[in-house]
């Protein structure tokens, strides 16, 4: 166990945005909200997954919506508290701890707000090891853990409690409700016992976020390359570099969808890389080959500062580096790929692990 | 108090479809479901509104969706039970009685199914004295009684519990959820104390339904006009008669919307009447004048049999009579008209009580 203070949030939010693969919410807003909560309520205990008792009750906290909207519609602060109260009242017992459901600028930091306000410890883990756009896309689904009861709260004072026969139905009901809520809402989901969580979660995600964030800042201070620092901490690969050209982005059915084209420079001169996204980056490809695809992580960093660039902050003319980071091994199982593989997202090519794609390209 | 048996349901469903003003669900399906429940579980107690204790807990039961879909997607039977269980578990107390939220072929009879299955008495009242398409359109809204907690259950096993800041928000969330549920779902709503109900509800609706249904059957047996019989029991007016011509009908955002044109016959020869509907008939008008509008009841009866015709059973060539029936007085207050007056439905003319319109036309 260690205490997380407001001072830690800069590094955590920065590293989380790297694992957020373009989604998971705006890191700046997420950081500010968490820092404010930590300053007001005091530090939050970060617990290792092993510190949980088997019958503890853990409820992840998150924000749901289209990043294009979330960036302009900042939570009031009490939405997540109302979502948690509704969950506790429905389950008839107290929540032991909270955690992130995904890594991402906002969704790694959001749970700190509720942990601080409710005096709950926060588990050093998440349900993806990255960010994904849909609710059922968590390692808990691989273990058939239900997303429900699932509570949603909006900024107006409305709450919803959902109970569904599977996690795809949770996604459907929650998504349409979030659209009615103005395309962003706070939620409590996947209530789990300590025993379930130990088996189902991706451990150590918050610590990893902080290590990544710290490496970027350190490299900066030392005049080193922040890109190299991220690659070292994450075991990732440099896939492409260049300048952002055309961007198509639209908010569809509660998601931010679109694509961006990068004109290569340096060793990628005369090549072109297309990034496709649904809240998160899904596929990076050149005219010749797929460079990386879900469930592996595709992260876009500012070529100079190493700052992660989200799908809603992509701008024409930005000089960027495209990084690939291997995903958690559980996503590479047949059940994992059926949930988040390229074919689930409508692509007709099979999943090939990032490391193999890199190797093939280097031959 | 009196007992309602399967034998009463024919008359109740028939009369309810008259008050259903074209909506409120298919009377045939509603009747069959209620009869089956009453045969299996035994008769249901029909309680006068005055028999309630002030602290009784009454929860209306209903079906929600587009009539065009409901006619083909028959409830499994346990949806409404699950909606009630979810409501009781959330409120942490037992429900004393149930009732209809609206008069209508299905929504007058649906509560008998749940009353029979759960052994609850049914209150002789409803929240409209007719049918309306949206959740907030009940006399309880005039008294600022909340529609929530509000539970929805579908045929697949999914349930939703909604808590909103006002009843318009309940309508929004429930409607989008019902669309995801396949355009029809069962629900429990407007949990009320006996004290609230006595002030807010329209009393005697089930008895009135039965009187209307009985009058139609009696007239039939006696070789009398069923139309005259309905007019006598309801205090209504004959507004138009003729043959149905063009019908436009589409399922939009979970509603059945459209219009039908009637070519006049008899004393209306060479005139034409247009009926506009959103689940229920909203406006009846000729080229010259509005004949009747919400909140007054517009009911279409088969000219020969006196059977009510719902918006989804309108067919080219049917010979029909258009009846107008004065609505409950509470709908004619400023607050009532703001909820269900013609202007709420997008029409630019002011509400004129049916009786005045009839008088003006006769001059």
Structure description:
The structure is a homodimer of 363-residue chains. Chain A is an alpha+beta fold. The first copy, chain A, folds into 2 domains: 2-205, CV3147-like fold, CATH 3.40.1610; 233-362, CV3147-like, CATH 2.40.390. The first copy, chain A, has 12 helices and 18 strands. Chain A has helices at residues 6-19, 27-41, 67-70, 79-91, 110-118, 139-142, 167-180, 194-200, 205-222, 226-234, 334-340, 354-362; strands at 2-4, 44-47, 57-58, 61-65, 122-123, 125-126, 150-153, 159-163, 184-188, 192-193, 202-203, 237-252, 255-264, 272-278, 280-286, 290-293, 297-302, 319-325. In chain A, strands 16-15-14-13-12-18-17 form a 7-stranded antiparallel sheet. In chain A, strand 15 (280-286) and strand 16 (290-293) form a beta hairpin. In chain A, helix 2 packs parallel to helix 5 and helix 9 packs antiparallel against helix 10 (226-234). Chain A is globular, with a radius of gyration of 19 Å. Chain A starts with a strand and ends with a helix. The A-B interface holds A 86, 90, 156-165, 169, 172-173, 176-177, 179-180 and B 86, 90, 156-165, 169, 172-173, 176-177, 179-180.
pLDDT averaged residue by residue of chain A: 93
The oligomeric status of these chains comes to homodimer
* Biggest interface, chains and residue tallies: A-B, 19 and 19 residues
Tell me the CATH topology of the largest domain in chain A: CV3147-like fold
List the helices and strands of chain A in order: EHHEEEHHHEEHEEHEEHEHHEEEEEEEHH
Biggest pleated sheet of chain A: 7 strands, antiparallel
Strand content of chain A: 25-35%
Strand order of the largest sheet of chain A: 16-15-14-13-12-18-17
**Rg value of chain A:** 19 Å
Residue windows where pLDDT falls under 50 for at least 5 positions of chain A? none
Reading off the top of the CATH hierarchy, the class of the largest domain in chain A is best stated as Alpha Beta
Number of separate strands of chain A = 18
Secondary structure tally, helices of chain A: 12
């Amino acid at each position: 166990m260690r205490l997380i203070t407001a001072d830690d949030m800069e590094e955590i939010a920065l590293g989380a945005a790297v694992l957020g693969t373009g989604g998971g919410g705006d890191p700046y807003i997420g950081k500010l909200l968490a820092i404010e909560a930590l300053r007001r309520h005091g530090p939050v205990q970060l617990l290792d997954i092993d510190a949980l008792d088997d019958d503890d009750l853990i409820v992840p906290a998150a924000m749901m919506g289209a990043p294009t909207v979330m960036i302009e519609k900042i939570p009031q602060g009490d939405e997540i508290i109302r979502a948690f109260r509704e969950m506790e009242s429905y389950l008839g017992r107290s929540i032991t701890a909270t955690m992130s459901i995904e890594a991402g600028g906002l969704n790694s930091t959001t749970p700190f707000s509720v942990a601080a306000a409710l005096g709950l410890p926060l588990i050093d883990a998440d349900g993806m090891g990255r960010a994904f756009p849909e609710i059922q896309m968590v390692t808990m689904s691989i273990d058939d853990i239900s997303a429900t009861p699932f509570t949603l709260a909006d900024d107006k004072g409305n709450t919803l409690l959902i109970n569904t026969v599977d996690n795809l139905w949770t996604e459907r009901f929650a998504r349409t409700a979030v659209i009615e809520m103005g395309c962003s809402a706070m939620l409590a989901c996947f209530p789990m016992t300590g025993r379930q969580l130990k088996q189902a979660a991706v451990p150590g995600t918050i610590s990893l976020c902080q290590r990544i964030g710290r490496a970027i800042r350190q490299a900066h201070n030392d005049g080193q390359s922040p890109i190299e620092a991220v690659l070292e901490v994450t075991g990732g690969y440099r896939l492409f570099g260049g300048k952002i050209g055309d961007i198509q982005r639209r908010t569809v059915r509660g998601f931010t969808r679109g694509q961006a084209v990068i004109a290569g420079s340096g060793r990628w001169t005369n090549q072109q890389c297309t990034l496709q996204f649904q809240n998160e980056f899904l596929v990076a490809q050149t005219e010749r080959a797929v460079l990386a695809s879900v469930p592996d992580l595709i992260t876009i960093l500012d070529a100079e500062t190493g700052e992660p660039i989200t799908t809603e902050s992509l701008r024409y003319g930005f000089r960027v580096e495209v990084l690939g980071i291997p995903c958690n091994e559980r996503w590479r199982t047949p059940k994992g790929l059926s949930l988040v593989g390229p074919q689930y997202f409508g692509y007709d090519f099979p999943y090939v692990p990032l490391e193999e794609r890199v190797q093939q390209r280097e031959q």
